[in-house]
Design brief:
The protein is an alpha/beta fold and 253 residues long. The protein is built from eleven helices and eight strands. The chain has a domain of 168 residues: TIM Barrel, CATH 3.20.20. α2 links the parallel β2 and β3. The chain binds 1,3-dihydroxyacetonephosphate.
């Protein structure tokens, strides 16, 4: 089964216009050479237009644009919200849903995540559905139960067929921004569980579903992670802010 690898850089709450220009110039110059790995950047909302223009100016080299969050609403009196349709207008193809920081710090429930997944697809965006357990949950031996519950919430709402136009990212909460990466074997075990869960409902969709790993991916551990059978790329946080690191992670695939 051939799945096109994807490396996505989630910039979180970082950046300013000049940093964006410098980072994108380096990424665009490097990624122009590659055609096998798909590369996506996910800047904060205010920089989407700038990044969209830089990508267009460089001649659409296979660098995609994504956002970090979206509203469940298409329009209306929802102060501070940004809709999926607006993201599409600014060139986004991907949007994160269910990132653990959104779940933990902004109270997003499984149901809200499922609603955002639906809103993204309604506008033609590919949701990148993030799943992950905390350290306590892992130590309690309930990793698969937690991941299964997070996944089920979306499957119940959207049906398994919706995963033909989505990406999944396994991001163990204890590995995010901590420098503690899941070992390739630990990550592979959960990735295989996710694929098996989907395969029980639809083997074809499971076979083509891209499942990314995220959590302290760095240039020196990327290749070992990406070599695992069910790891189809990475969702990169800290290392996505440093052009040389991000590019060497992309090249590790
Ligand atoms: P780090 O790569 O900084 O651990 O962040 C991972 C992440 O949360 C990407 O969405």
């Amino acid at each position: 089964m051939s799945r096109q690898p994807l490396v996505a850089g989630n910039w979180k709450l970082h950046g300013n216009k000049s940093m964006v220009r410098g980072l994108m110039d380096s990424i665009l110059a490097a990624v122009a050479e590659s055609d096998t790995t798909e590369v996506a950047v996910m800047p904060p909302y205010p920089f989407l237009a700038q990044v969209q223009e830089l990508i267009a100016g460089a001649g659409a080299t296979g660098v995609r644009l994504g956002a970090q969050n979206l509203s469940i609403h298409d329009e209306g009196a929802y102060t501070g919200e940004v809709s999926a349709g607006m993201l599409v207008e600014f060139g986004c193809q991907y949007v994160l849903t269910g990132h653990s920081e959104r779940r933990a710090l902004f109270g997003e429930t499984d149901q809200m995540v499922a609603d955002k997944f639906v809103a993204a697809q309604r506008a033609g965006l590919q949701p990148v559905l993030c799943l992950g357990e905390t350290l306590e949950q892992r130590e309690d031996g309930i990793t698969e139960a937690v991941i299964g519950r997070q996944l089920d919430a979306v499957i119940t709402q959207s049906g398994v067929a919706a995963f033909a136009d989505a990406v999944v990212a396994y991001e163990p909460v204890w590995a995010i921004g901590t420098g503690k990466t899941a070992s390739p074997e630990q990550a592979q075990e959960v990735h295989a569980f996710i694929r098996r869960t989907i395969a029980d409902m639809d083997a074809k969709i499971a076979g083509s579903l891209r499942i990314l790993y995220g959590g302290s991916v760095k240039p020196d551990n990327a290749a070992d992670l990406f070599n695992q059978e069910d790891i189809d790329g990475g969702l990169i946080g800290g290392a996505a802010l440093k052009a040389t690191d991000f590019i060497s992670i992309c090249k590790a695939l």
